[in-house]
Write a structure and sequence with these properties.
The protein is an alpha/beta fold. Helices cover 46% and strands 16% of the residues. Strand 1 (6-11) and strand 2 (14-19) form a beta hairpin. The structure holds ligand T3D. The site of ligand T3D has 25 residues, from helix 2 and strand 6.
Amino acid sequence: MSYQTILFSVEEGVAALTLNRPDKLNSFTAQMHEEVRDALKQVVRNPQVRCLLLTGAGRGFCAGQDLADRKRAPGEPAPDLSESIDKNYNPLVRSLHGLETPVVCAVNGVAAGAGANIALACDIVIAARSASFIQAFCKIGLVPDSGGTYTVPRRIGTARAMALACTGEKVSAEQAEAWGLIWKCVDDDKLMGEATTLARQLAKGPTRGLALIKRAIYAGEHSTFDAALDLERDLQRIASRTEDYQEGVAAFIEKRAPDFKGR
Ligand code: T3D
């Protein structure tokens, strides 16, 4: 499939997916959803890919749904947006969450509506200092989607999540870092360098183990202490049987850098 709304490339084990409709702040159209779905399939199928790096082209990361596609003529019946959620947004954030490779998101500018929550569905979020996060849904009478009612209160607490969802107030990247909504905020000119370095570092890491870590951390968000201990034990069983674990121990003993293969 050739892409018109995204850029996609694979280099040094990192699949770089850039949302690319900069003049519309990379808002999602049906075509963009289709192209992102296709690219994510390639990420899953290509054994060379050991990390995904998501970002946006231009001055914004993503402004959520393209609202021009939701314009209605007078008298036209109301759309059922649950269809779009079921077809597009939920599968997208489920894919990012469930992908067995780490997902780094480099938030290069404003992330609004579903754009904010898609970024927050990624495993490690780095934002440019000039970037911001806006739960913009309430401004058009909608409810946060793409996992925002799950992710945001868990990271910053119900009081802040509720106020942000009900006011649509903008959260700066610095504030997002201070609140623990994202991992960190960096100077604008450092963003892509830092995000790419991190993605390459992860891609060279014990990526089966990283996928198990991802599973454990996300499961831990809604499990009991006992269940978390049991899951850690079960995942440690799997991790201990990987070639990378063997390599990690050998490298430590031989005082050399490990050469992980993601197996
Ligand atoms: O419908 C479904 O399928 C259900 C799922 C819904 C998920 C959602 O995401 S709903 C929420 C949709 N998003 C929004 O409500 C955000 C709308 N955008 C904004 O509020 C502002 O654009 C921003 C706060 C994000 C940025 O403001 P600013 O002042 O920096 O930029 P701007 O001038 O508003 O936008 C620049 C251009 O991008 C502009 O186009 P123009 O006039 O230069 O041709 C603007 O219309 C366009 N743009 C920005 N966001 C969207 C958009 N065009 C279409 N859809 C957008 N969401």
